Amino acid sequence: MNSKAHTPLIQVSKREALPWQKSWLIRGIAIVAALIVCALITTMLTGENPLQVYGSMVSGAFGTGRRIWQLLRNVAILLTISLAVTPAFKMRFWNVGAEGQVMAGALACTVTMLYLGDKLPNALLILVMLLASVAAGALWAFIPAFFKAKWNTNETLFTLMMNYIATQLIAFFIVWKYPNGTGTMGIVNQDTRAGWLPRLGGNEFLLIILVSVVITAVMYVYLNYTKHGYELSVVGESERTARYVGIKVGKVVLRTLILSGAVCGIVGFLLVAGVHHSISTNIAGGQGFTAVMVSWLAHFNPIMMVFSSFLLCFLGQGADQISTDLGLDHAFGDILTGVILFFIIGSEFFINYKIKFRSGEDRKGEIENA
């Protein structure tokens, strides 16, 4: 007997895959627990009725028809960016450059819109804007992919650096175009509306939502039922295995990142031609980074990303409404959002791992057998 043998009181081990019903039950319990904690925080810090705060959040997302359409538009944009980064993530290429790829697409779209707005028919102009955005986004993703495939550079740092370059390019373009201005660009082609996306059914956001739905369906099929989707999954599991079975890893990296950048370019096009009709250094609004969380929470499943995108957009829009309705600082809404996300992310631990508490007798028996 080894008197110094020691076994832990708590043992953490990897779970086998849970049925989806149990997984979502755990997530549901986490959300309920988060709402209880948020209620306590609200009462202690503000003295407000927690139910009133939650009601304000719901009102901010669903209070009017306009707010509902804005929520759906925000979900569509965030979802599409999340879909863009997912193929790279499945390949274990940590593309955190979606922000810059969206901005590159938006800049190409704006330049095309400005300089060809009075030279092409509107339908052809919109097509050229789309192609320019896709090409710019793809190029912005291709550059770090090339260096990764050729010299195995760190893709996280490289794609992050490309974000800052894209930001400064937009800032330079605005100052160059309007040297005596305020550093902001007004509405492009406001009088002629050349290059503006058409309204479907009288709604300015419906086309954006439909584009997002189509991209979601295509990406789901691409990742799960195509040879390219299979190859990037194999590369993500093991590059050595991929090479052994004849997959050209460098080619897969380039192809996948070009796809990611192209989809981000589409988002840049939608933001300029369908939402803002202008450009700024904040046009992506940080959603390129939020998309990382959306993709991870959904376990790289495009269908589940719809729900995670909806949750994050709902929380963000609800937090804005809290500050408006109750006169609370916007940071308080962000605190509640952070608590809820903390519990949701924490629930993933219990979905993937199980905890076993050892009784004194079990531990004693293991020590005696050691």
Description of the structure:
This protein is mainly α. The mean pLDDT is 90. Helix 3 packs across helix 8, helix 4 packs across helix 10 and helix 11 crosses helix 12. It has 14 helices and 2 strands, in the order E-H-H-H-H-H-H-H-H-H-H-H-H-H-E-H.
Task: Give a short overview.
The protein is mainly alpha-helical and 370 residues long. It is 74% helix and 3% strand. It is built from 14 helices and 2 strands; from the N terminus they run βαααααααααααααβα.
Shape: globular
Biggest sheet character: 2 strands, antiparallel
Q: What is the topology, as strand order, of the major beta sheet?
A: 1-2
Structural class: mainly alpha
* Range of strand content: under 5%
Order of helices and strands: EHHHHHHHHHHHHHEH
> What is the terminal-to-terminal distance?
6 Å
Instruction: Please tally the β strands and state the result.
Output: 2
Q: Specify Rg, calculated over alpha carbons.
A: 24 Å
What percent of the residues sit in helical stretches (DSSP H or I)? over 70%
Could you list the spans in which at least 5 consecutive residues all have pLDDT below 50?
Answer: none
Mean pLDDT: 90
